[in-house]
Amino acid sequence: MKKINPFQPNSPVAPGMFAGRQNEIDALKQGLQQTKHGNPMNFLVTGERGIGKSSLVNYIKFLADGSIKSPDFEQFNFVTINIAVSEKMSLVTLIKLIERNIKRQVGKVEKVRNFLDDTWGFIQRIRVMDSGIDKAQSSEDPDLILDELAYSLSATSKRLTSPEKGEERKDGIVFFIDEADNASSELRIGYFFKLLTELLQQDSCGNIMFVAAGLPETTEKLYNSHESSIRVFSELKIRELEVPERYYVIDRGIEEGNEKNTDQTKITKDAKGYISTLSEGYPHFIQQFSFSAFEFNDDGEISAEDVLEGAFRPCGALDAIGSRYYASRYHEQIKSDEYREVLSIMAENLNAWTTRKEINENFSGTEHTLNNALQTLTNRKIILRNPSKRGEYRLQQKGFALWIKLFGERKK
Ligand SMILES: Nc1ncnc2c1ncn2[C@@H]1O[C@H](COP(=O)(O)OP(=O)(O)OP(=O)(O)O)[C@@H](O)[C@H]1O
Ligand SMILES: [Mg+2]
Prior knowledge:
The protein is an alpha/beta fold. The protein has three domains: 21-237, P-loop containing nucleotide triphosphate hydrolases (Rossmann fold, 3-Layer(aba) Sandwich); 243-313, Helicase, Ruva Protein, domain 3 (Orthogonal Bundle); 335-408, Arc Repressor Mutant, subunit A (Orthogonal Bundle), CATH 1.10.10.
């Protein structure tokens, strides 16, 4: 029988398999503790695709709602609201999602439900106003809507933290707003956070914390929408996992697999070393290379060869990673074969710095085209320009270079 593969390249990691991020977790726990005691803190979690933002947010959610307990703090008991921003999301939709989530979580007791219906009544009015308009845009002034939202949130939070007889006491509300980089300019996400947190503060509502997460460009989006909205947040930049943390992810996965399967699996030290190096510390890649090695292995011990076979064969790990992360960059964002040729030349050096001279020597096009290519590829952040040495460029990741070498030629 085929073994259940414990590695999950496509979903946030479960708390039991979570590795690293100690500093970030400490900061967020501190934030929860402060918010619980009426001194709210807000966080912005940023990082590249697949670096583990949603996984971290998920882990903190479990801490916040008390599903897991941290040894250094008493158990938290926050109401947690998860929202993933989509490209088309309007302010009205965002607010409706907030209302719906709150009602779903705390509206089970009739008395509280009635209280929520009264407190969130303004939503009904917006609903009437926007009926018939496709984009669920309201004609009402966003300032007024945000003012109503702040009032309702504040009243809800106060009721939860000082409940009436027979109701459960909560520590407050934590919002997890993931994929914030998707926010359209109409959503005015920076303005949303800035105004809302200020209004809550004016209303002496101290038990609400916001955790927003997204790609690094989220910072720019916030800034463009409201210059000082960044100051609402402490930013946590998520980076690659350290080598021991990468090993931990692999070991925990193998253990997890052995709990689920009767046929046991071992892994050699070499194999772990290859996964660690190939992944460059990107948790998504650790999961994918481990997943593919686990799939490929058939003798109960994952060896270095299993890792390499699983990684490089068609439909293997690198192919899967490529179609998720690199293919659109390579095929859609780049319209010219000559630009792709520049990338292929650079890929020969993996992600090490390559001089313009070296590229030129191997390039079939004109100097003019090469200049345009380097300019465009740099602007689109597909390649990096060496800030401390003129005329040197490199690919961002070794994985991208390997993928170009192996699969780049293949048509889409
Ligand atoms: N701390 C971690 N320990 C173990 N595995 C992790 C960790 N963080 C992330 N992963 C794994 O890496 C992959 C990507 O994680 P996640 O979805 O959290 O990244 P992300 O930054 O939210 O990605 P995206 O930008 O695509 O939303 C998942 O397979 C997840 O299981
Ligand atoms: Mg994510």
